[in-house]
Design brief:
This protein is of the alpha/beta class. It has 2 domains: about 5-160, Rossmann fold (3-Layer(aba) Sandwich); about 185-310, Elongation Factor Tu (Ef-tu), domain 3 (Beta Barrel), CATH 2.40.30.30. Helices cover about 35% and strands about 25% of the residues. It contains 10 helices and 14 strands. It has helices at about 30-45, 55-60, 70-80, 95, 100-110, 135-145, 160-170, 175-180, 195-200, 290-310; strands spanning about 5, 15-20, 50-55, 85-90, 115-120, 145-150, 155, 160, 185-190, 205-215, 220-230, 235-240, 255-260, 270-280. The strands form 3 sheets. Strands 1-4-3-2-5-6 form a 6-stranded mixed β-sheet, with helices on both faces. A 6-stranded antiparallel barrel has the order 9-10-13-12-11-14. The longest helix has 21 residues, at about 290-310. The radius of gyration is 22 Å and the shape is elongated.
């Protein structure tokens, strides 16, 4: 089978209580599962650990993964921030997908020596999704393993889920998505070369982001911030999402994410960047001259600073 489980932070003590799930986004509902695992681990005097899945099971099962909210390394970091002493991934392969529920649980027990499991109340696993909380409960009871399956969290009558966060973000309901996440929405990617005009005219660094993770909201200009993981700093940023119509010169249009960093100087090409989106400022539009665009972006930057100070 190969190495089925990889912990980014190794378990230093055996017999953990495991929180188990995909955990894309590590949203407030996920943290309820983590809380249950941490509470049981404290009762038993053992570590709490979290296991996610990579790649996303839907990618293996259907060939069509969802737009992931977080890269794996950020997912594991946030699981540790939520209370897991160790976090890792189960390598989801076709072989793992074919395992019967009891077979999967037995392998998990063999590899980790777990003494407790916490999952979402409606989580499914095993061949054909045949495993559920009843299957885990029966497996755990027969072996003296603690088991918790917290009911899923609801906000304003809607179940908190990664799918709901994607849906709300895609239609621009950033406040709802942020409430479910417990933090602002983010886009993750690498900075690539853009048209080259904006930085010359605006005299401020313009990061043209090639998105890799996160869901893009509708086109427009947003107040946000830019986080440079390499230096660990955060800057206010006016973020344009769309087709840059003022600078567009024909050819195949390409949807772009441009973050105008406020208060930063230096080269950004090739760096990784995380962009937080706080709120919508205005629609994207074409300006008759770059100078008019520069004037508007100065207004956008001033409004962004107001939002940033309140964030």
């Amino acid at each position: 089978m190969g190495k089925m489980i990889e912990f980014e932070v190794p378990l230093t003590v055996a017999a953990p209580v495991l929180a188990l799930g995909v955990f894309d986004g590590v949203h407030l509902g996920h943290r309820r599962i983590l809380d249950a695992a941490v509470a049981e681990a404290r009762r038993r005097g053992v570590p709490a650990a979290a296991l996610s899945f990579a790649p996303h099971p839907r990618e293996v099962l259907t060939g069509a993964p969802p737009e992931l909210l977080l890269p794996v390394e950020e997912r594991l970091r946030r699981l540790r921030l939520a209370g897991a002493e160790a976090a890792g991934v189960i390598r989801f392969t076709p072989e793992v997908a074919r395992m019967e529920p009891d077979e999967f649980l037995a392998e998990l027990l063999r590899l980790t020596g777990l003494t407790g499991i916490a999952v979402g109340a409606h989580w499914r696993f095993g061949r054909g999704g045949g495993g559920d909380r009843r299957a885990i409960g029966a497996f755990a009871a027969a072996r003296g393993i603690a088991f918790a399956a917290p009911e899923e969290l609801e906000l304003d009558g809607e179940r908190v889920s990664s799918s709901a966060i994607r849906r709300h973000t895609a239609v621009g309901e950033l406040d709802v998505a942020a409430a479910m996440l417990g933090r602002p929405c983010r886009i993750f990617g690498r900075i690539v070369r853009g048209f080259g005009e904006a930085e010359r005219i605006l005299r401020a660094p313009t990061a043209n982001l090639e998105p890799e993770f996160g869901v893009l909201p509708p086109d427009g200009v947003y107040a946000g911030s830019a986080i440079l993981p390499g230096i660990g700093e955060r800057f206010p940023a006016a973020v344009n999402i769309g087709f840059s119509p003022t600078f567009y010169r024909g050819g195949s249009p390409c949807r772009r994410v441009e973050a105008h960093l406020i208060g930063f100087s230096g080269s950004l090409y090739g760096e990784r960047l995380e962009v937080e989106l706080f709120s919508w400022l205005r629609e994207e539009r074409r300006f008759d001259s770059p100078e008019l665009l520069a004037r508007q972006i100065r207004c956008d930057a001033a409004r962004t600073m107001e939002v940033f100070r309140r964030s």
